[in-house]
Amino acid sequence: MLREITLGQYYPVDSLLHRLDPRVKLAGTFLFLIALFIVNSWTAYIFLALVLLLLIKLSNVPFSFMVRGLKSVLFLLLLSVSFNLFLTPGKEIFRFYMLKISQEGLHIASMMAVRLILLVLSSSLMTLCTTPNELTDGMEKGLSILKKLHLPIHEIAMMMSIALRFIPILVEETDKIMKAQMARGADFESGGIIQKAKAMVPILVPLFVSAFRRAYDLALAMESRCYQGGEGRTKMKPLHYERRDYLSYLFLLIVLALSIGSRFVSLP
After folding, report:
1. Count of domains for the chain
2. What distance in Å separates the CA atoms of residue 245 and residue 251, rounded to the nearest whole number?
3. Is the domain of 116 the same as that of 51?
4. Do 81 and 213 belong to one domain?
5. Same domain as 210, residue 157
6. Are 58 and 152 found together in one domain?
7. I need a surface site. Which of 50, 51, 214, 245 has the fewest CB within 10 A?
8. Membrane spanning segments where (predicted)?
9. Do residues 58 and 142 both lie within one domain?
């Protein structure tokens, strides 16, 4: 289960999406998420799903690899769907003792499931097609206008990219700790919720120790290389837009415009 988390990983292949400017990919992910929360019809959701499938195809990342990332959020998906399915009032279509399913609840729950799936896939696609260094440069360059407000943009971008980079590292570390504990006779599957929560303690303690040790080693490595923030630093590969980047912006704006327009027309 842990190795199936794709968020924060980078998939090294040559594709159109990999060659795009990281600012385009960051802006594209942000605009796609906005579109997801704007649309309110099945036709619009199908349109956004087709757009995402097209982008996955252009990324040359195997679709099976992308879908693996959904298993890590399966519990959150089921929890969100269950709350909307059973707690939304409306016209009752099914009842089992205290639990009832309404027509409105079924509609909202199914849309919530599709929205969460597309959200996870689109966010994973960005990190799979962008290296941590590109993410840092893209965020710093894209938010450079906020420097006029004396905000530490370089440091914020650095922290966000390090946090994303540490996700697969901590997942791998957790997997190693769990296997080591299981080899010593630990049981993480049997028992109730309280028992399973207690069984996680032998994992969390060494995981936190390892995380703090890695953070200390990273800080020591940055300090030994005289890292003092972004002031006066130059880029080995300065970012610059190309024709494909402008065309990508145009495509994203068209998708967003169509998503906004779908709210003003009657769609099934």
Report:
1. 2
2. 10
3. yes
4. no
5. yes
6. no
7. 50
8. 29-56, 68-87, 108-129, 149-171, 246-265
9. no
By the 8 A CB rule, do 25 and 127 touch?
no
Confidence of residue 230 (pLDDT cuts 50, 70, 90): low
252 and 125 belong to one structural domain:
yes
Tokens (6 digits) for 144: 């450079």
Clarify whether residues 14 and 122 are in a common domain: yes
Distance CA 181, CA 100 (A): 42
* Cβ burial, residue 41 (10 Å; 0-12/13-18/19+): middle
pLDDT at position 8, please?
62
Cα(210)–Cα(188) distance, integer angstroms: 20
Cβ(58)–Cβ(13) under 8 Å?
Answer: no
* pLDDT per residue as tens digits for the range 128-138: 888 877 887 78
Q: Are 36 and 48 in contact (CB under 8 A)?
A: yes
Same domain, 180 and 244: no
- Where residue 93 falls among pLDDT bands split at 50, 70, 90? confident
Phi/psi for 102 (5° steps) reads -105, 160
Domain with 181, as residue range(s), is: 133-233
Q: Which two tokens stand for residue 81?
A: 């769907």
What is the rounded distance in angstroms from the CA atom of residue 127 to the CA atom of residue 125? Answer: 6
DSSP collapsed to 3 states, the chain? CHHHCCCCCCCCCCCHHHHCCHHHHHHHHHHHHHHHHHCCCHHHHHHHHHHHHHHHHHHCCCHHHHHHHHHHHHHHHHHHHHHHHHHCCCCEEEEECCEEEEHHHHHHHHHHHHHHHHHHHHHHHHHHCCCHHHHHHHHHHHCHHHHHHCCCHHHHHHHHHHHHHHHHHHHHHHHHHHHHHHHCCCCCCCCCHHHHHHHCHHHHHHHHHHHHHHHHHHHHHHHHCCCCCCCCCCCCCCCCCCHHHHHHHHHHHHHHHHHHHHHHCCCC
